[in-house]
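Example complex used in Figure S2.
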Amino acid sequence: MERRAVRHFDYGLLLLAAALVAYGGLLIYSASLTAYPDGIGGLDHPLVKQVLFAVLGLGAMAMIAWADYRLFGQMAPALYALSIVTLIAVLFLGESAFGSRRWITIAGTQIQASEIAKLLTIVALARYLADRQLQITRVRTFLTSLALAVLPAALVMAEPDMGTAIIFGAIWLGMVLVAGARPQHVLMLGGFLLAAIPFAALAVLGDYQRDRIALFFNPNSDPLGGGFNILQAEISVGSGGIFGKGLTEGSQTQLDFLQTPTTDYIFSVLGEELGLVGAVVLLTLFAALLFRTLRVATMARDQFGRLLATGIAIMVLFQVFINIAVNIRLLPVTGIPLPFISQGGSSLIMLFAALGLLQSVLLRHRQIEF
Amino acid sequence: MDPYLKPDPREPRRARDKKEPPGRSRAVFAGLRALVILLFGILIIQLVRLQVIQGDEFAQRAEINALREVQIPSTRGLILDRQGRPLVQNGVRYSAAVVPGDLPERGEVGVYQQIERVTGVAAEEISRKVAVSVVERGEFEPVVLKEDIEEDTALTLRELEPVTPGLRLLTEPTREYLSGPLLSHILGYVGSLSAEDYALLKDQGYLLNDYSGKTGVELTYESVLRGRPGKKLIEVDATGRELKVISERRPLDGSNLLLTVDLDLQKMVKETLEQYTSAGDNAAAVVMDIKSGDVLAMVSQPDFDNNVFSGPLEEKDLADLVNASGKPLVNHALAERYPPGSTFKTVVGSAALQEGIAATSTTITSRGYILVENEFNPNIVYRFKDWAALGPLDFYGGIAMSSDVYFYYLAGGKLDEGFRGLGEARVASYARAFGFGEPTGIDLPGESAGLVPDAQWKEETVGDPWVIGDTYNFGIGQGYLSVTPLQLITAVSAIGNGGKVLTPHLLREVQDNHGNVLERFERAVRRSVPVKSEYLAIVKEAMRQSVTKGVAKKAAVPGVEIAGKTGTAEFGPTRPDGSHETHGWFVGFAPYDDPQVAIVVFFQHGGGGSDAAPAAGHILDYYFHGPQLAAKPEDGE
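Predicted assembly (1007 residues):
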């Protein structure tokens, strides 16, 4: 790659991501003290694993940034097919945890297929919409793009993982709007979906999802069962107050009242131990990261790059929002990792790969000028 | 459509790419930035609501989550007789139970079979009980499978408990009363708290499944026996497991009670009463140190075994006990009141001497009855009989022979012969001065106050005016007057001890575990009778004569000078031959010259001279000559 292009590399974006991973590392350390009371004792400690995945992620980011992102555009159909096959495989071969099958083991490594599928679907949608920049106003193109998102969303929903399915929907919506879809189409679709909600609640939602929604409205109906997480997360965050109880000092976290405190409920750990101040710092970091991602979108040299960046920004935004909203009882329980913060290799590597795509778009955004 | 505006498919891709993003996409990006701020703004608003506005409330809930206050029970104090012999011991009762919520997900049958092997309760039965209990009481309430299991079985279960999820060995403290029925009325028993008790006692640190003294000494000295339970504040994790102790206050074990009762004497008194009564009849006896008020023995018949309240008591068994003939649960020595009969003449005699109504030389002739004309109609003549035509009697003779006519004169007078009696008001006032009509204040619950009648009382309660006949009856301890055996012994003790009505008591000392005395009961004088000691000495002498040559002869014991007074009190409906059923009484003290001990014996069915007097003599013989009685109450203690 030409040296002059390297000056376009966005170190701010990388630093923000690194800061978030470091922030998450502190929380993972604190949240795993119950399970690992002696601190970091070996390679199986969650924080050590997280750091290793972050290093792998940085490698992936570097490789993808160095490669031309348009290469992925050309590979998009194959990548998309791969992600669909993986999602189907998960349904039949996957490992289940907490009542849903989300992981598939490849070469001894557990991979959360839906994490990979999210990014690959963004690539595929970007390619499809970029290719049909002017046909997007047509209903057929509009609906085909919808189908591209609905297929992986439906497979994820079957795991069942409603949260990630919603993320697919949000990604698609943002991308078609940037691609220039007609607002009428979007509104009509929205109206149709609204009308379908009662049927969806009966047919599409499984019992467990209906239970979760019911519990969201009244967690005290089952305070020791399904409602336990909801109530305990709320107590954790609320009890943190403005300044928090101090890292590793939160009684809720350290006494095991939070389930999955290093992953889906890691925000509750933050809320309890670092308080409102810690939460505002986190949201500020995310906001900066998102604004820089949207800056990439506006600077992209082509529609494909622009759509890629848009899709990634929307994915991160909605994951952050839904994850935190579940922790603070604004939304029903749904298992979505908090980007860069939650423990989890698939998610972290996927996010760094996405950062690599963004950097690649930036590095080549004005290749024509000299 | 204008063909020139159509995109040219041959236009190179690069040229198309170079185009600026369509105008609307700028707006979309602005919208996306706004969306970031909007969504994060929503999150921050909710965070402020939870962490700032409701922060304190959630902080409290987090604390409640993590901290538990656990009580450490204190060991209940023991109860000893006056020689330090234990009357009660603390035990443990074991029950096998299962906590359904802790059972392994698919392995509950294995646990049931394990329990079946050890306890013999069939696995199917366990399974059924668990299923019922889960529905009725939830899955975290222990399901009791077998109560009161053997200690060996309990030990096996204790070893299995840590490795058998769901199995729970429940332990309950119990009181084992070593002498059973012998001391039931004195010791009482402990029982679990009722909902009402709990509401009253929870501020004092009682728990819902706690125990407390229900009656007897166990109730009176509950706070001493219980001690103070300890408390610890522990941090628990989400499953309720204890992680660490944050603060702890050691329990303060209950203190031991050294009673005034002598176990041997108690046993002997009880045997004596049993000899003189048939099953189901009431009888009571109290032996008391006449100088200190120490109750050396107190027996009420029929008895019950207070150990039955330590185990699981069926509703029906309890009802049987409550309704059994003779009311075994009631302490007849103090909870029921009876007419005292002629024993009351000691009080009337003292009053008559003090009031100048009689002197030692006052001689009255008993022809077997006196006749009294109706105040308004002289044609109506009432006849008040004596138990025999005793002839002329002086004061000593009147008491010794227990002449009713003599005391008709002293109490009611004989106006036609110009003899002025005490009158109802003065008899009542002296009765009260001797402690009748009010509880003695003994350290046992459930005491009756008895009843001392007077004109005002009769008018208010019965509705009739007081007549001379009432005064005559009053004078011989009949009619409306009623007393408890305990009141009678404290009243007559005052004659023997120089005029002090003492508060009888059962507690001698409070001791710690090592026998160190924490508290010693001091003699408590409740009243001083308003009778000069020379007059009391006269009554005492008269009581002595009653035993030596009067109606209480059967109480005499060779080698001991006993002073006493019998009573045969009529009660119930008149029989066809004009007679009544009678209570038998004896009250007295010994030795005559320097009294140490007082005694009262009461039989619901019997005579004073024929039954109560010999029973009392028997007891006093044992008291003064019995070989087993090692320690007699020391003088001046």
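Residues 1-8, 10-21, 629-637 of chain B have pLDDT under 50 and may be disordered. The two ends of chain B are 128 Å apart (CA to CA).
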